Amino acid sequence: MPELNTVIRELLDVFNCKPFQKGDGSRASAFEDEKPFLLPLPPRPFELATWKVATVGPNYHISIGELLRSL
Q1: 18 close to 26: Cβ distance less than 8 angstroms
Q2: Is pTM, for the whole model, over 0.90?
């Protein structure tokens, strides 16, 4: 597997340095131009949201886990 990753990395470098068909530069040069504007990754990983279909009761509450939320 490490050998495959090495070959993929080499091919990816070749692909990224290939000039654009229309326009100036390459993917690698575009990345270098935009690199100063990149922001650092957040300290915590992204947490996926949980979706739930809820029915509103006559008291205008829905249950989320063990909690009741008023609407």
Answers
A1: yes
A2: no
